[in-house]
Amino acid sequence: MAEITLHQPPRPNPPSVATKTKDEAKVKRARKNLTYAEKWELIKKIDQGMTKRGLATLYRINKSTVRGIYQKKDTIKSHMDIAPTASAAHNAKRSGNRVLVKTE
């Protein structure tokens, strides 16, 4: 009896990022760190009626980031109250002592 085999054409290799042209390669968005002052301004604009989608476009961040910032508005408000000066709150990107923040 003759054995029947099916011939399958070889699979093409998937293109790697190195073989793609610059236009074809996916360009990642640069990471954007917002200060507490910027986050507080964002929260105030949401409370004034601006849409989260509009703010995401304005600040060049993802919509889910805007929602996350708004959900943490109480924490951000407490950080703004703790800051010794307005310039310290303006320049701070995160709290320095997480244990101290948890206990307060």
TrEMBL record:
<feature type="region of interest" description="Disordered">
    <location>
        <begin position="1"/>
        <end position="26"/>
    </location>
</feature>
<dbReference type="InterPro" id="IPR007889">
    <property type="entry name" value="HTH_Psq"/>
</dbReference>
<dbReference type="InterPro" id="IPR036388">
    <property type="entry name" value="WH-like_DNA-bd_sf"/>
</dbReference>
<dbReference type="Pfam" id="PF04218">
    <property type="entry name" value="CENP-B_N"/>
</dbReference>
<dbReference type="GO" id="GO:0003677">
    <property type="term" value="F:DNA binding"/>
</dbReference>
<dbReference type="GO" id="GO:0005634">
    <property type="term" value="C:nucleus"/>
</dbReference>
<dbReference type="InterPro" id="IPR009057">
    <property type="entry name" value="Homeodomain-like_sf"/>
</dbReference>
<feature type="domain" description="HTH psq-type">
    <location>
        <begin position="28"/>
        <end position="76"/>
    </location>
</feature>
<protein>
    <recommendedName>
        <fullName>HTH psq-type domain-containing protein</fullName>
    </recommendedName>
</protein>
